[in-house]
Amino acid sequence: MRLITTLALAAVLQTAAAGAREQQTATMQKPTVTTFGKLPDGREAHLYTLEVPGGWKATVTDYGAILTGLHVPAGGGGAAEKTIDVVLGFDTLAGYLAGHPYFGAICGRVSNRIAAGSFELDGKKFQLAKNNGANHLHGGDVGFDKQLWRATPRLTDRGPAVELEMVSPAGDEGYPGALTTKVIYTLTPAGELDIDMTATTDAPTIVNLVHHSYWNLAGHAAGTIRGHELSVAADRYLPVDDGGIPTGALAPVAGTPFDFRPEQKPAATLGAAIDRLPPGTDGKNPGGVDHNFLVRGWQPDGRLHEVAVLRDPKSGRSMALFSDQPGIQVYTGNYLDGTLTGKGGAVYARQTGVCLETQKYPDSVHHPEWPTVRLDPGQTYRQRMTHRFTP
Predict the structure, then answer these.
(1) Which residues lie closer than 8 Å to 371 by C-beta, 6 or more apart?
(2) Beta-ladder partners of 135
(3) Looking at the chain, which terminus has fewer C-beta neighbours within 10 angstroms, N or C?
(4) Active site positions, annotated
């Protein structure tokens, strides 16, 4: 009798859960599509709007697979402003075409830096663009952030989503092998932003994608992020040389400006770290944080870990970032200089946004002892991210 009762209760709970999911899905809509502008070659870019009840809204363009906006509930119950946009960007395609520091883009094939823009694979040397001084950065001169992706909007059981796909041919920017990449943005009913990335190849190559949003939890036009608190689940970081290339050392964060460990009390602020990392005297190094952290306890099992929490003390708003990657690059917008005018006329000055880029370690292709960026035919590169907000 007890077993029958237990089974009956389980069936009731499953039915109720299924009903709740159906009701939740019924209140959501497939992403809407609007024209975003034209590329110089005449092709048209589009903007995809993902919305769920409660004021949550994400906008994504098929140009660069860019997250152009993310509106979250503003809180406080004020009628004048129900939501606030927490990522830096532009209102039109023209802003992105004019040149920008990878606002909201998917960067690849290999994000971050590759020393001297070259690497060897199976005994053959490949030379890439040197688009960051003597080094290669974020995929080269025309990386994934400057490509028009093929987009498919859909309504899934997890929320409205847009799938973006592009094929990078063999030899593109100097990389071997044809690479097919897919990125899926999903906005869940709870307001979580999920980003899922996959890639396959027809020949041995290297891959290390990142999502490159600049976050300001006070709002994209709110000014400096110096007062934001940050915790990073990392006990070690990668020191870099003057060109931003890791030296190969795995240094402890304790006693350094890079100590963002969650157990720090009071929580570390970005401003305190920035102040301890002043600009260089040669005018080339703007100071601030632009370093990769080694995720604590990472294993190559595909499980999501809470790798960082960003918080704006003034609004109380926070964002927890979950990832399956071994590293996270923290970049405090040090090269922003006030020359870019973004959404709504906002001027993006130095350190008005912070990037949290989950990835394999930078320049891993030159460090075989680090998690590999190599991808072979028959394998699938995967990366998952979840952004969870507390309004």
Answers:
(1) 300, 326, 327, 360, 361, 364
(2) 132
(3) N
(4) 212, 357
Q: Residue 13: CB partners within 8 Å, gap ≥ 6? A: none
Q: Which residues contact 21 (CB under 8 A, 6 or more apart)?
A: 157
Q: Render pLDDT for 175-187 as a digit per residue (tens, 0 to 9).
A: 999 999 999 999 9
Distance of CA 84 to the CA centre of its chain: 19
User: Is residue 18 a part of any domain in this protein?
Assistant: no
- Residue 127 near residue 135 (C-beta atoms within 8 A): no
Please tell me the distance from the alpha carbon of residue 48 to that of residue 67, in angstroms, as a whole number: 10
What is the torsional sign of CA 28, 87, 329, 181?
A: positive
- CB-facing half-sphere around the CA of 159: CA atoms within 13 A: 20
Q: Is residue 13 part of a domain?
A: no
On the question of pLDDT at 24 being above 90, the answer is: no
Which region, left, alpha or beta, applies to residue 257 given φ > 0 means left and ψ of -120 to 50 means alpha?
alpha
In a domain, 105, yes or no: yes
Q: pLDDT tens across 137-158, in order?
A: 999 999 999 999 999 999 999 9
Residues 241-268: b if buried by 16+ CB within 10 A, e if exposed: eeebbbeeeeeebeeebbbbbbeeeebb
292 burial level (CB within 10 Å; 0-12, 13-18, 19+):
buried
Q: Does residue 16 form part of some domain?
A: no
For the stretch 59-88, pLDDT in tens is 999 999 999 999 999 975 444 458 999 999
Distance between CA 167 and CA 186 in Å, rounded?
A: 21
Name the residue among 329, 330, 333 with its Cα closest to residue 353: 333
Closest listed residue to residue 387, CA positions, set 293, 322, 307: 322
Tell me which amino acid residue 201 is.
T
* Predicted TM-score of the model (pTM): 0.93
Please tell me the distance from the alpha carbon of residue 387 to that of residue 194, in angstroms, as a whole number.
6
Our count of domains for the chain comes to 1
CATH of the domain at 375: 2.70.98.10
Identify the domain containing residue 379 by its residue range.
32-390
How large is the C-alpha radius of gyration of the chain?
A: 21
Burial of 133 (0-12, 13-18, 19+ CB in 10 A): middle
Cβ–Cβ under 8 Å, residues 318 and 311: yes
